[in-house]
Amino acid sequence: MIIQELCNIFFCEANWYFSAIDKFYFDQAHRHWLRSWDPSPTAVGQQASANSLCFPALLFQVLAIAVQFVPPNSAVEETTRRPNAPSLDELSKLFSDNGERVLGTIGRHVQALTAVQADLMRCAWLKNCGRGSESWYALGNAVRQAQDQRLHLEPSPWQTTDQKEELERAWYHEHRRRLWATLFTWESHMALQLGRPRMINAADCTVKTPIDSDFPEHPSRTILATPATNEKPSFYTSSLVKHYFAQHIHKLMSLGALKPGFGDYSTIQSVHAEISQFLNGLPSTMRPDGPDRSWDSQYPDFVKHRLNISIVSNSFLLALHKPHVVQHVQSSELAVSAAIGVLNDTQLLFEETNPHQYKIYTVCFYLVDAGLLLAAMLARLPGLDQIKSHAITTLQRAVLTLSKLKEKNHVAVAGEAALQHCLQRLGCSAKITEVEQQHTDDHLPTTVATRIETAGQYEGSLPAVDESALITPASSVPQTQPESAFDQWRLEGPDIFGQIMDDEAWTASWLEQMNSISSMSFDFDEDGLEWNTGSSTALSA
């Protein structure tokens, strides 16, 4: 059955990153929904639950994402090769749009976890398509429904003498906590990257942080506990790391610490120290630096989860220090090193990713965001000559990676052109030889732990910078007749090097590139394809 195959594809190929749908409860909701169609006399007249009523909306979104990750030579792919059959992209869009119509028809006032999950998966699907503004609105729908269902509040204690019932209820509440943790994490990161107001007030949330444990196949027979030292480690660690950084984002945004001119630099250093302690305390299998690899051969996905943790950690460090690179030498060095770390880790994640998984937004967005920031800092900040050659090589590798992604990832088209433009402005070629691709610079600290250990060794502020001397004149860039709107942006578009310290201008410059390619790279209806003035690049949930 095609539907079952697609559901299996979703949980095997996509949900390792999202960690947004617990398979046990999805399968349970699926069975309940199928029974609601039972024509037998005992079933007639029974009212479907709210979860069953909204389940088709969730199912459509899961199918839509699954189609984006269909492995080659699968039954689904064979179906699309028939005469007049829709392409995989068209089929994916059809599924997702139908799911949106179902939920719109029922109404989001219906209190159902499946409705929350449907909007969350719609958000993920839109991100994979590069439709950033719409994904923010979809996430907003999910957050408001979740708040209406009190997912942000810890449930009251309960008492029962039935052990099976107690375990089932404990895991069900854990299921709700994990759904809220995912919403909180995505909303925090999107608020940071998009420059949008936060929809969640952390002070309103009393719900506990989920435990570090994979969701069991049989909750009624499983104790709610973290794995023992001799047991398989948890994949859920990577989700908890993202949740940890989301909590820091809320605190730092409330303090105004992620804006230029923040007066208390000791807060930035203190956060650095706390991050170091947190990462060193992760389970050994999941530590980005010096991990225990003994489980990798049996569970290869641990490699991807570790890389994901490292990318998120580096990206947070980059966001932490970016506003302060002009005032503090320490921040400029750590921001550049963090950007290189993001690019290197993302390159490794790309190598661990199968071609049919290239649509996932993580690889592309982190790659482009860190690449643009790195290029801008190389252009504007002094004192970076020692690492410039290594940084340029890293940017060239990023361009090469994006060139491989662009056939299946629409945003990679814009990202590749943008980074090529940056390298031209730096007076460098965008191409890289095979020898250069294999080159690594051992003297530069690119691991998270090393960057944190070097924090605090530098004092003082950067001197005044003659920006005009640091930016390659536009006249030095080979001028060709632009073939498209994006080519016009590439040759004449926003000077990102002059805007790196201005958050609003930085956001606007990346939006221009996104707006330039959306209609070119997506052949479907034009509604919602452009990214409006509130969006940015790194939708890093």
Attribute tags:
mainly alpha; globular
Short synopsis of the structure:
The protein has helices spanning 2-18, 23-35, 50-68, 75-80, 88-106, 113-128, 132-148, 163-194, 237-255, 265-280, 301-321, 329-351, 361-380, 385-405, 410-425, 434-438, 448-453, 467-470, 485-492, 503-521. By secondary structure, it is mainly α. It has a domain at 323-524.
Layout of helices and strands:
Layout: H1 2-18, H2 23-35, H3 50-68, H4 75-80, H5 88-106, H6 113-128, H7 132-148, H8 163-194, H9 237-255, H10 265-280, H11 301-321, H12 329-351, H13 361-380, H14 385-405, H15 410-425, H16 434-438, H17 448-453, H18 467-470, H19 485-492, H20 503-521
Fold and architecture overview:
By secondary structure, the protein is mainly alpha-helical. The chain has a domain at 323-524. Helix content is 59%, strand content 0%. It is built from 20 helices and no strands. The chain has helices spanning 2-18, 23-35, 50-68, 75-80, 88-106, 113-128, 132-148, 163-194, 237-255, 265-280, 301-321, 329-351, 361-380, 385-405, 410-425, 434-438, 448-453, 467-470, 485-492, 503-521. α3 (50-68) runs antiparallel to α5 (88-106), α14 (385-405) runs antiparallel to α15 (410-425) and α15 packs parallel to α19. The chain is globular, with a radius of gyration of 24 Å. 45% of the residues are buried. Mean pLDDT is 81; it is low at 41-46, 440-446, 452-494, 503-508 and 511-541.
